[in-house]
Inverse folding.
């Protein structure tokens, strides 16, 4: 049996969060009435001139700096010529030969907690096209040009990924970086981030790359993995049956979970790129680049590293908690309030994330604030409440019943009873009420008694409505029962 190696390269399109278009003052707001946000420049009407949006340049450079890329002094916009109804200009303004961001590298975190560097070939600025709406009109296609001229950063990786998990991890790393920088909302469902997946296979050990297929416009982390899995199997089967992979563009269909051919290389467009005569080359001076570098926030890789080194979190916890800036900020506040990183990590990833997932909320929508959760964790750590009662307090805060953990503990009488007199009274009552179990306990082999004590602990905890300190109950019970032997 031949052993195959998979090779993957990604082209990621990120919609930049500028308020206006890349070459015009029209708004980029999502969800407006069709064709209310496309101005003469976006349509390329005769006589208009594009003006480059400085915010788009700044965002592209920030991305470049975040992936340790070279930022060339000069970059140039080119026209990519093709005809399509959603592109009334007849060309897309893009950057072909002199992109704004040169070669760089991203550290991606894999599921086992390890990291792998993936090289970035380059990233370039371009404008988005409009949208064709096929569903809304019977026998016709609608064209909405609101999206025309929206700024995109296209990030092109080297073919450094070797399986679907690595590709998804790369996409997640890009997602973290652009959202940390605040240069994109990263909303994949709204198309703010989408990617083309290039996949090939080659016999293990072969140095040259196999022929690739490019799967266009995959818009979720899961679909990236699915599309790759399908492609790898299709290509290996094809070659093993004596066929050859042809270079082509394919489409992933999530409903059927398969990729289908769109066009082969022979049918590929010749875009006749040439420098856009309407736009000057972009020249960035060193001071401008250094100014942006000085303003970069702490990025996901640095945060992950700090969480491990400074806070002593596991590689896995550090990876999860640093993946989104909002999550990281929430976690750090919980940690500051309760003073314990490990406890804070457990609560954020456990109770809180579980509740968020159940109700399909993101962390910024959490009804329990980081301060509230931090205070709750403190009350477990100082033994005011048991772990079990803490879950009850969390639920109450989640439902808006009380402003703080202390309010809820007070209102619901959840304070742990550590007064041994009160606990002893409850124990005496339980022993008096359970003569049969007490007799069994006394008759049992000594090594079996440890297990049997559980019944009594349960009864006392029940009598205290969960407020008795379980360790204390255990200790006192053992003393009292053993005195009866
Ligand atoms: P093109 O110019 O035709 O778009 P590029 O050389 O720019 O092709 O590559 C586009 C993307 O495809 C890059 O992300 C690159 O890493 C990836 N790629 C190139 N060759 C292969 C291959 N044989 N297998 C997998 N990915 C590849
Ligand atoms: Mg390309």
């Amino acid at each position: 049996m031949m052993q195959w190696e998979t090779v993957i390269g990604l082209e990621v399109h990120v919609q930049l969060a500028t308020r206006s278009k890349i070459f015009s003052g029209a708004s980029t707001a999502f969800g407006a009435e069709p064709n209310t946000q496309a101005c003469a420049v976006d349509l390329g009407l005769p006589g208009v001139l594009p003006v480059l949006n400085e915010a788009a340049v700044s965002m592209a450079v920030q991305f470049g700096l975040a992936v340790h890329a070279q930022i060339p002094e000069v970059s140039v916009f080119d026209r990519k010529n093709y005809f399509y109804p959603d592109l009334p200009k007849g060309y897309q303004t893009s950057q072909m030969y002199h992109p704004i961001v040169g070669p760089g590298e991203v550290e991606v975190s894999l599921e086992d907690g390890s990291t792998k560097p993936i090289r970035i070939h380059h990233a370039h600025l371009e404008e988005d096209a409009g949208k064709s709406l096929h569903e809304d009109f019977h026998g016709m296609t609608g064209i909405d040009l609101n999206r025309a001229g929206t700024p995109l950063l296209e990030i092109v990786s080297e073919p450094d990924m070797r399986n679907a998990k690595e590709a998804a991890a790369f996409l997640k790393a890009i997602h973290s970086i652009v959202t940390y920088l605040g240069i994109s909302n990263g909303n994949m469902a709204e198309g703010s981030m989408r990617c083309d997946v290039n996949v090939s296979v080659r016999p293990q050990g072969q140095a040259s790359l196999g022929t690739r297929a490019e799967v266009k416009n995959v818009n979720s982390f899961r679909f990236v993995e699915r599309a790759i899995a399908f492609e790898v199997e299709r290509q290996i089967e094809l070659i093993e049956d004596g066929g050859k992979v042809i270079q082509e563009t394919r489409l992933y269909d999530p409903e059927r979970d398969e990729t289908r051919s769109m066009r082969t290389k022979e049918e590929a467009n010749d875009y006749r790129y040439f420098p856009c005569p309407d736009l000057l080359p972009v020249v960035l001076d060193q001071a401008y680049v250094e100014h942006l570098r000085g303003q970069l926030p702490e990025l996901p890789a640095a945060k992950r590293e700090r969480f491990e080194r400074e806070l002593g979190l596991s590689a896995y916890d550090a990876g999860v908690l640093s993946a989104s800036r909002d999550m990281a900020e929430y976690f750090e506040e919980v940690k500051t309030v309760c003073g314990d990183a490990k406890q804070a990590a457990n609560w954020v990833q456990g109770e809180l994330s579980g509740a968020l997932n159940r109700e399909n909320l993101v962390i910024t929508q959490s009804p329990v604030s980081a301060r509230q959760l931090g205070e709750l964790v403190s009350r477990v750590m100082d033994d005011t409440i048991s772990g079990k009662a803490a879950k009850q307090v969390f639920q109450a805060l989640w439902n808006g019943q009380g402003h703080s953990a202390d309010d809820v503990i007070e209102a619901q009488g959840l304070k742990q009873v550590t007064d041994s007199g009160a606990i002893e009274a409850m124990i005496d009552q339980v022993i008096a009420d359970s003569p049969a179990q007490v007799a069994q306990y006394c008759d049992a082999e000594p090594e079996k008694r440890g297990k049997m004590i559980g019944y009594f602990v349960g009864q006392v905890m029940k009598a205290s409505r969960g407020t008795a300190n379980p360790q204390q109950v255990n200790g006192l019970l053992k003393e009292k029962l053993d005195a009866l032997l």
User: Anything to note?
Assistant: The chain has a mean pLDDT of 94. Residues 300-412 form one domain. Residues 221-240 form the longest helix (20 residues).
